[in-house]
Amino acid sequence: MPTAPAKAAGATFAYKISYRNIAKDPDGIWAGPALSPSPTGTVTIHEYTLKSAQGDWLISQIWNADCGSATCPTRLVRTSADGKKTVVVDDMMHQVIPPDDPRFAALPKSEAQAAFAKAPFHLSADGKELLNGDLRFEIGGEKP
Fold it and tell me: What residues does each domain of the chain span?
């Protein structure tokens, strides 16, 4: 877990849901090789949402074969008024442990780690960056 809290955070993403032991992403954010199982033989997706003036946002983090020791593939998706989903950030981000995970309560945490665990994603005050602990990701170009 990161040790530094996000700075200048605007809006905080709320935990939405976890899909455990899946072969297909119910929201269609991940497909193909991204659904390759992790070393434990499973694929899990954790999602966080935010409604803002810039639109509806979804963060989808997949725990799969591509996860590192503390990072996993993560996508920020903007949903337009007509329902079209656009990936605006696609990168490796700090691995989250969602509040519905039994490990969440058992983890020893510093104050900064506890704050990160409760709110791992923030939209910057100007809406131009996604903050994930001490990591910053520019919200930019569309990806199909």
Answer: 15-132
Cβ-contact 2, 135 below 8 angstroms: yes
User: Angle at Cα 120 formed by Cα 80 and Cα 50, nearest 5°?
Assistant: 25
Q: Look at strands 122-124 and 85-94 and give their pairing.
A: unpaired
The C-alpha atoms of residue 127 and residue 120 are separated, in whole angstroms, by 16
Q: Which amino acid is at 140?
A: G
Taking only the tens place, the pLDDT of each residue in 84-98 is: 999 999 999 999 988
Task: Say if CB 13 and CB 49 are below 8 A apart.
Answer: yes
- Do the beta carbons of residue 35 and residue 23 sit within 8 Å? yes
Residue 143 to residues 86, 100, 139, Cα–Cα distance (Å):
7, 30, 11
The helix/strand/coil state of 66 is coil
Low-confidence ranges of the chain (pLDDT < 70): 1-9, 103-109, 141-144
pLDDT at residue 113, rounded to an integer: 73
